[in-house]
Amino acid sequence: MENLIELDKRHFIHPTSSIQQQQKDGAKVIMEKGEGIYLTDTNGNVYIDAMSSLWNVNIGHGREELAEVAAQQLKKLAFSSAFSTFSHEPAIKLAEKIATISPTGLNAVFFTSGGSESNDSAIKLVRHYWKIQGKPGRRKIIALKRGYHGVAAASTSVTGIPEFWGMAGHMMIDFIHAESPYGGNTEKAIASLRQVIEDEGPENIAAFLVEPVQGAGGVLIPPADYFKEVRKLCDEYEILFIADEIITGFGRTGKMFGMENWGATPDLMTFAKGVTSGYIPLGGVVVSDHIHNVLKEKSKGTLFHGFTYSGHPTAAAVALKNIEIIEHENLIENSRKMGEVLLKSFKMVKENLDIVGDVRTIGLLGAVELVQNPVTNKRFAQELNVAPRVIEALYERGVICRPVTFNGTDIICFAPPIVIDNEQINTLVEKLYDSVLSVQKQLGVTS
Ligand code: PMP
């Protein structure tokens, strides 16, 4: 373990990390194995993986079936190209399967290796769509403040969390952010979106790109009528509607895809994470029949956009098995039911403690907000580090969760594997209660 920590410091630049903190403190934990909702580290400590790692291990860790399918495919045909007119069965079958489970009218898939590549691809595709229709001026992409869409070139710029923009200078041009419906209502959020469209000029706008639930922004669940209004507005101005289903896809919200909760159908949908439950990297973009037809008719010559791993056969084989498990084990139903149990338990925690504000779930995507005053929703001073302290208290009790502290919020996010059961939720929420209580006491608040 000591040796691993030294090697980690010397050679491993971690994603989304403080390099100085790594050099000072070393790796906090080195994970060794996973089973179901649990992770075990090299010291034998067991943790509840309450975030499904990075919102992605939907069916839980350690499923032998996925390992077997991957081994079989690796032995038969580990990799071959899908460029130009080369193809192979796993990618064809996965594209067909994704078309079958996607919203009506979305039937053609472009594959990538992850979420950021999927959003960059969707952005290039919609610009191409307008270009081949003689409207090259439609380039601007609108998204929401607090939206998260990845860290590639365009996906960094479409992300609405300013912390992500500074690393290498500033963001790309032609990306604009409207108000999120968080903390407000549909009317206000739609008015902001309309204003942005009018200000930028509808004739310059290619698409609106949005998560059904803003995940990294703090699990922000829009009001029930929000996306129907978004759909209407996009139709009114002829703007394409792209749903980023990278967190919300594959059962996470109690539906196969998150947008189904709002009864709205996008023109394009990006996915990744839960498509393979993280066992192997894969992502993609699904497009509507209309877009596919325009591409078929008007996209002349080679479309110079393709990743080496677009349609990776082994990743595709794993995805097919993963989706089969989600369907055969009724995991979408489990996600919906257990999401209700989780919400009930969060409400009990709120009733019994003094610093819990809004609690919410949609399927197994949930959040608990910590506030100084739950009646007025007054927030804690940021220096108090309330959410990170609760995360630390949870960690000490064997639970891995994630804080969101943008704009002065203190939000604890939850996205456990969708195989979680009643008893495991009870254990998780007991540990949450104890953790919040301990921080509440440190803050001098007594229940
Ligand atoms: N979109 C959303 C909504 C995400 O949550 C993420 C990853 N957290 C991404 C895009 C980017 O995906 P990736 O990290 O696989 O590039």
TrEMBL record:
Name of this chain's protein: Putrescine aminotransferase
Keywords: Aminotransferase, Pyridoxal phosphate, Transferase
Coiled-coil regions listed in the entry: none
Keyword Nucleotidyltransferase attached: no
SUPFAM superfamilies per the UniProt record, alphabetical: PLP-dependent transferases
Keyword Magnesium: no
CDD domains hit by this protein: OAT_like (cd00610)
